[in-house]
């Protein structure tokens, strides 16, 4: 298919390799790709780069789909949905690369190399020892198979290498950093002994055939770009524009890695109870400024759509930024509070199921109670993983409330008196439904609070600050819990009194 017939004013792709848990950088690239594609009325593609067979990881491709979908970063063309350039998985395109490799060989831009892996290792060690620049020493250049076979370190299955010219152009214009001068490349392998192309050949052929207009990738690929530009030139193709994104760095300013930083894994954010809205917002702020309002103020909280509408490459800071998880926690709290209550409630379900608090398919009654509790805790949470602790006590039997050690330790000599007074005062509240519709009961948070204050603060003269500690412990087993009087209303009179009595029996 020719370039001009492909849909989209611009065409961008994210091209992850399925080598394990998806890296947070994949989402970062995808976001910037998608923002620009949306702004320009273009297309966003997902391509799976699986030519490095040794590093493949079963299940990783599915995780890439799942995590990008979870973030709402959906693609217009890809292996799972097809498109005009299918297939979008490189292992299914092997036939595509071969003729280009042959062409480069025939034109003298590439040559066969029979050096064995052992010879190459020795060569590299030697170069390091002599403090020479690393790179292939061209032992095979200009030799026939026979000539080469006569020398040591020969392997019968050759690879194909690019013949980098002496006057290789290493400078190029980057959409983010401007003019970049990359290092001089060495004779890069483009076809491996197993017949698979390397990343360098496959990426150029695919980006060209898929009509990619803008290549967005991390700065770690800057040194590869001169090789790619050479391949474009040799194959007679117009190269795309390049945007090399700043590296995401940890607090030590090191490039984040899955080995050192658990949060380099995209799935980590989901497991830890972050909202996709918050992670997208957070990633948009990495090396990119907040939204500048008309009145000159800056706004850090924004949706992907708001980000995409204003997107421009020249706003990206090539120096990047440090990954600040405290900032992400803050953003997550903001986004949690923005959710509509029903939505917030359903986002809690997988976490409560994982904690064994609710079944996978809760009953209507359980859902109703959860929604009531959700309303009490929505403003108090930074991460969805905190829900289990707050919600758990509402879904256990009254005789099974676990009293945390620190909560029990706080109970002082006054606790029995306070509990007795509470039991008396609450026992007097009529919880039977009254009124025309039979729906109003006196058992409300307001009435509970008023009567407990009267009995304990006024009646016993206990300071309000300490008056309700034993009650909170009885109801939730914790020092910190959702608001007490509302919790009692949700639990109902019978449960509330049973829990107060259960704690009273132990103090
Ligand atoms: N497969 C490469 C990666 O995993 C893609 C690099 C590129 O976007 O050119 O990062």
Keyword list:
507 residues; Rossmann fold; Glutamyl-tRNA Synthetase, domain 2; 3 domains; two-stranded parallel sheet; 21 helices; 10% strand
Set down the secondary structure blueprint.
Layout lengths: L10 E4 L9 H16 L3 E4 L13 H11 L23 H13 L3 E6 L1 H13 L15 H5 L4 E9 L8 E4 L3 E4 L7 E3 L7 H11 L4 E5 L6 H11 L5 E5 L2 E2 L16 H6 L4 H9 L6 E2 L5 E2 L4 H6 L11 E2 L2 H14 L2 H14 L9 H14 L9 H5 L13 H5 L5 H13 L17 H16 L3 H4 L1 H8 L7 H8 L1 H12 L3
Parallel strand pairs: 1-2, 8-9, 10-13
Antiparallel strand pairs: 3-4, 4-7, 5-6, 11-12
Helix pairs in contact: 6-7, 9-11, 12-13, 16-17, 16-21, 17-20, 19-21
The structure holds glutamic acid.
Account of the protein in words:
By secondary structure, this protein is mainly α. The protein has 3 domains: 93-245, HUPs (Rossmann fold), CATH 3.40.50; 269-392, Glutamyl-trna Synthetase, Domain 2 (Glutamyl-tRNA Synthetase, domain 2), CATH 1.10.1160; 400-504, Arc Repressor Mutant, subunit A. It contains 21 helices and 13 strands. It has helices at 24-39, 60-70, 94-106, 117-129, 145-149, 199-209, 225-235, 266-271, 276-284, 304-309, 325-338, 341-354, 364-377, 387-391, 405-409, 415-427, 445-460, 464-467, 469-476, 484-491, 493-504; strands at residues 11-14, 43-46, 110-115, 154-162, 171-174, 178-181, 189-191, 214-218, 241-245, 248-249, 291-292, 298-299, 321-322. The model has no long low-confidence stretch (mean pLDDT 95). It binds glutamic acid. Glutamic acid (GLU) is lined by residues 15-17, 49, 199, 203, 217, 221.
């Amino acid at each position: 298919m020719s370039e001009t017939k492909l849909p989209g004013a611009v065409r961008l792709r994210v091209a992850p390799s399925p080598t394990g848990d998806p890296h947070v950088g994949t989402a970062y690239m995808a976001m910037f790709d998608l923002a620009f594609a949306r702004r320009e009325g273009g297309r966003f593609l997902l391509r799976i780069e699986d030519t490095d067979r040794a590093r493949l990881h079963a299940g990783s491709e599915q995780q890439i789909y799942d995590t990008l979908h979870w973030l709402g970063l959906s693609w217009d063309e890809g292996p799972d949905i097809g498109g005009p350039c299918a297939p979008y998985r490189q292992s299914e395109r092997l036939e595509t690369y071969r003729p280009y490799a042959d062409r480069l060989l025939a034109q003298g831009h590439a040559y066969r190399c029979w050096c064995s892996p052992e010879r190459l290792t020795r060569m590299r060690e030697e170069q390091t020892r002599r403090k020479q620049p690393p790179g292939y020493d061209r032992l095979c250049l200009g030799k026939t198979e026979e000539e080469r076979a006569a020398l040591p370190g020969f392997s019968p299955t050759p690879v194909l290498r690019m013949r980098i010219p002496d006057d290789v152009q290493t400078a190029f214009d980057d959409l983010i950093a401007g003019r970049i001068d990359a290092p001089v490349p060495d004779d890069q392998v483009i076809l491996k002994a197993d017949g698979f192309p390397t990343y360098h050949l496959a990426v150029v052929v695919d980006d060209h055939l898929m009509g990619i207009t803008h290549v967005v990738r991390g700065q770690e690929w800057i040194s590869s770009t001169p090789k790619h530009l050479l391949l474009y030139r040799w194959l007679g193709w117009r190269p795309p524009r390049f945007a090399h994104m700043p590296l995401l760095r940890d607090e030590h300013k090191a490039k984040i890695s899955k080995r050192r930083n658990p949060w380099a894994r995209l799935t980590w954010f989901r497991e830890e109870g972050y909202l996709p809205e918050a992670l997208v917002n957070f990633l948009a702020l990495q090396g990119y400024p907040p939204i500048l309002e008309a009145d000159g103020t800056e706004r850090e909280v924004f949706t992907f759509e708001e980000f995409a509408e204003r997107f421009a490459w020249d706003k990206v800071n090539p120096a990047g930024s440090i990954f600040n998880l405290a900032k992400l926690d803050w953003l997550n709290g903001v986004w949690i509070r923005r959710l509509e209550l029903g939505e917030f409630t359903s986002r809690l379900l997988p976490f409560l199921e994982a904690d064994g608090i609710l079944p996978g398919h809760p009953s209507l009654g359980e859902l109703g109670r959860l929604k009531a509790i959700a309303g009490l805790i929505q403003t108090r949470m930074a991460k969805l993983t905190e829900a289990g602790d707050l919600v758990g006590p509402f879904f256990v039997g009254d005789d099974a409330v676990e009293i945390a050690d620190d909560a029990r330790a706080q109970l002082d000599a006054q606790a029995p008196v306070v509990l007795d007074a509470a039991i008396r005062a609450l026992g007097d509240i009529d919880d039977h439904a009254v009124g025309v519709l039979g729906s109003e009961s006196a058992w409300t948070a307001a009435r509970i609070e008023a009567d407990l204050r009267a009995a304990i603060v006024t009646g016993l003269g206990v300071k309000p600050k300490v008056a309700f500690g034993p009650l909170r412990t009885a109801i939730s087993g914790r020092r910190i819990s959702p608001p007490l009087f509302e919790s009692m209303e949700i639990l109902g009179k019978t449960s509330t009194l049973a829990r107060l009595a259960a704690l009273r029996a132990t103090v």
